Amino acid sequence: MKKVISSLIVASVFFSNLNAQSDSQKEEQLYRPNFHFSPKKGWMNDPNGLYYKDGVYHLFFQHYPDGNKWGPMHWGHATSKDLVKWEEQPIALYPDDLGYIFSGSAVVDQNNTSGFGDSKNNPVVAVYTYHNPNREKDGKIDVESQGIAYSLDNSKTWTKYSTNPVLKNPGIRDFRDPKVFWDSKRQQWIMVLAAQDRTHFYASKNLKEWTFQSEFGKDLGGHGGVWECPDLFPLKVEGTNEEKWVLIVNINPGGPNNGSAGQYFVGDFDGETFKIDELFTKQLQKEKAAWLDWGKDNYASVSFDNVPQGKRVIIGWMSNWEYAQEVPTEAWRSSTTMAREVSLKKTKDGYILKNIPVAGLKNYQGKSIRKKINLNAENKLVSLSEIDLTKAVLDLNLKKMIAGTYSFSLKNSLGEEVVFGIDNKTKELFVDRSKSGKTGFGNHYATPVTKAPLNQIYSEAKMKLVIDKTSIEIFFNDGEKVLTEIFFPNEHFSELTISTDTKGSLLNINAHQLDIK
After folding, report:
1. How high is the pLDDT of residue 322?
2. What pLDDT score does 5 carry?
3. Residue 248 and residue 256: Cα distance in Å, rounded?
4. CA distance 426 to 77
5. How many Cα atoms occupy the beta-carbon half-sphere of 413 within 13 Å?
6. d(C-alpha 430, C-alpha 450), whole Å
7. Which of 297, 303, 338 is nearest to 318 (CA)?
8. What residues does 408 pair with on adjacent strands?
9. Residues in a beta bridge with 511
């Protein structure tokens, strides 16, 4: 009898494990993005160490390979030749006696200022935060310091600097996420670092010895949470030769629609101090903060070093700390946003940091449709037989718009939907994922409706949509406003509709399926 019971228990456990495995595989197939990067297994958050060298873009990322929630941080690694199709590589940096490997950056040391290179190779130097869990456990404040590592073989192998850390903690609990760049005008390296509720700037000649220069931001911008993952870079103002400096600062919580998000500042940098522009000061007085992305799911966006033609390209973590560790995937968690090229536009009201998908996305255009539609109350725009909406780019151009609502719906046969569009009466963009499928996880996933304010009623507007299995990135009017959101339907979305309470408006659609394998 004992044998029978034992056999039944073994069988029960076997089939239970089989069912769990089967469910996991289903979710793997249903939710694994078609073209946004996600790790093969384990947890992922912030992008780190972004750089270009010898025809290859390198993306490192916060990674815990042994679990699907945040844990001891490593630097995972992926590479791409075009910023669209990514291939995961072996883990680059592992925790050591000094702590976990938190966020940071990587630079191509073209002049071998560090002395890590040789006659054949310019070294790539990674600058990252050490987070010491033992000191944290003991209630210490000086938990975080900055270390460096270098590679002479295009990031296949790394050597940590023997006398790490290169920047010790000055007595600040949150002291992390170093973003380093070469300041060519003053022939020095600059590090911008998140220091609790502000940024610190440091300078170095060799990446090993750092001198404090200044701080910025204590009373400026959004302060609903701790500041993290900063970035500083120059950009020409569109249509002019005027150069301004842009400082990106990510914040958690405190985003425009709750949770984590990225904000930016526009000003001037003299090698020591960042000072915001006079027009941007007025902009902040009116807006409180300038947001890189109004959606819930773009955090820790930072830029690549050494990109050809001086372009500035950013990529973010496509999730939100409010629910990232509870999303309904098991084998892995999280993906990155689409890589985006940024530009700076100046208006009478202030500055807009525009971001649009990188040009390389156009190389994957496959099956396409074009339509011109006179809008009625309900309109079917794209069906499953036309293009696959789990890997698509759609350009929508609305004309003859009047005050009213233009609501697009991404739908499936189960009645699940993501609703988004323009409320041209209240002057807002919106995304509503309350009926998008699985929604009962984490905090505040489905509510409230995500909104982004517009400063006028539009008679004509453009939207570019980049849609994957579990995400939509909405680029309004060439990236002047952006909303990024993730979702988890129980069946792939297969059709797109629009409803409106207006009359006489026109819609032009140019949609492409993406051929990415």
Report:
1. 96
2. 44
3. 15
4. 44
5. 3
6. 5
7. 297
8. 420, 498
9. 369, 394
What pLDDT is recorded for position 22? 57
Catalytic-residue membership of 46: yes
155 with 147: CB under 8 angstroms?
A: no
The pLDDT, as a whole number, for residue 27 is 72
CB atoms within 10 A of CB 134: 10
For 489, other C-beta atoms within 10 Å of its C-beta total 24
Q: How far apart are the first and last CA of the chain?
A: 54
- 10-residue block means of pLDDT along the chain (517 residues)? 45 47 70 98 98 98 98 98 98 98 98 92 97 97 98 97 98 98 97 98 98 97 97 98 98 96 98 98 96 98 96 98 96 98 97 98 97 97 96 98 98 98 98 97 89 97 98 98 98 98 97 94
Closest among 418, 432, 442 to 497, alpha carbons compared: 418
**Dihedral over Cα of 28, 29, 30, 36: its sign:** positive
User: From residue 14, how far is each of 10, 53, 103, 144 by CA, in Å?
Assistant: 6, 49, 40, 45
Length of the chain: 517
Triad 425, 428, 429: Cα angle to 5°? 125
Furthest-apart CA pair in the chain: how many Å?
Answer: 87
Active-site position among 23, 46, 82, 138: 46
For residue 39, what are the CA distances in angstroms to 62, 63, 91, 334, 444? 11, 9, 11, 8, 25
3-state SS record for 157-220:
CCEECCCCCCECCCCCCCEEEEEEEEECCCCEEEEEEEECCEEEEEEECCCCCCEEEEEECCCC
Tokens coding 404: 């009213």
Whether 206 and 113 have beta carbons less than 8 Å apart is answered as: yes
Determine phi and psi for 503, rounding to 5 degrees: -130, 145
CB 443 within 8 A of CB 323: yes
Among 171, 93, 99, 101, residue whose Cα is nearest residue 135: 99
* Cis, peptide link before residue 90, omega less than 30° from 0: no
Is residue 264 a contact partner of residue 248, using CB atoms and an 8 Å limit? yes
| pLDDT at position 24 | 64
Cα distances (Å, whole numbers) of residue 273 to 178, 193, 218, 270, 278:
16, 13, 14, 6, 15
pLDDT at 4: 44
Contact in structure between 104 and 128 (CB atoms under 8 Å): yes
Backbone dihedral region of 350: left (phi > 0), alpha (psi from -120 to 50 degrees) or beta?
left
Q: Look at residue 361 and give its three-state secondary structure.
A: helix
The alpha carbon of residue 134 and the mean position of all alpha carbons in its chain are separated, in whole angstroms, by 30
C-alpha 328: how far from chain center: 20
Which has the closest alpha carbon to 279: 223, 314, 237?
Answer: 237
Is there a contact between 180 and 195 (Cβ–Cβ < 8 Å)? no
* Contact indicator for 67, 330 with CB cutoff of 8 Å: no
